[in-house]
Amino acid sequence: MKIKNYKDLDIWKRSIKLVEDIYRLTKSFPKEELYGLTSQMRRAAVSIPSNIAEGFTRFHNKEYKQFLYIALGSCSELSTQIIIASRLEYFDNNKIEQLLNEIDEICRMTMSLIKKINTNN
Fold first, then answer.
1. DSSP per-residue string spanning 9-78
2. Cα 39 to Cα 69: distance, rounded to the nearest angstrom
3. Is the pTM of this model over 0.90?
4. In whole angstroms, what is the distance from residue 81 CA to residue 75 CA?
5. 3 state SS of 88
6. Residues 14, 106 contacting (CB under 8 angstroms)
7. Which residues are within 8 A (CB) of 119 and not within 5 positions of it... i.e. 6 or more apart?
8. Number of CB atoms found within 10 A of residue 36's CB
9. Residue 50 has what pLDDT?
10. In this structure, are residues 26 and 82 in contact, taking their beta carbons and an 8 Å threshold?
11. pLDDT computed for residue 1 by the predictor
12. pLDDT digit of tens for each residue in the chain (121 aa)?
């Protein structure tokens, strides 16, 4: 399948699903976390597909890669926040493992895309 826009990218689709998962998960967080960890996790999750999409629409590969690196940073930020939420016992360990594995896979896909961009220069 030819990739015509960012919505065709598997990495974008998977990161959108991750956003949905994070929003559902954080709904059950304590109300006092609304402007703390809940907000931080949601923003980090949303940043991943947003930067993939924005980078895709840039004219230069150098810019595209910069946005992909920002997405990678958001993945690391979100992983850290999930670990913090786990230590605070805001959700069960099975869900944590699943989310962290999905974030790791999105990171690997992002690095592969960066490498592909590098070889196309």
1. -HHHHHHHHHHHHHHHHHTTS-GGGTTTHHHHHHHHHHHHHHHHHHHHT-SSHHHHHHHHHHHHHHHHHH
2. 22
3. yes
4. 10
5. coil
6. yes
7. none
8. 11
9. 98
10. no
11. 59
12. 577 899 999 999 999 999 999 999 999 999 999 889 999 999 999 999 999 999 999 878 999 999 999 999 999 999 999 999 999 999 877 889 999 999 999 999 999 999 998 887 6
Q: Report the candidate in 93, 113, 120 with the shortest Cα–Cα distance to residue 48.
A: 113
Give how far Cα 17 sits from Cα of 24, 26, 36, 51, Å. 11, 14, 22, 15
Extract the tokens encoding 110: 């992002």
Closest CA to 111 of 7, 41, 11, 31: 11
| Distances 68 to 24, 83, 90 between C-alpha atoms, Å | 25, 23, 30
**Domains defined for the chain, CATH in brackets:** 6-119 (1.20.1440.60)
How much helix, strand and coil, in percent to the nearest 5, is found in the chain? 80, 0, 20
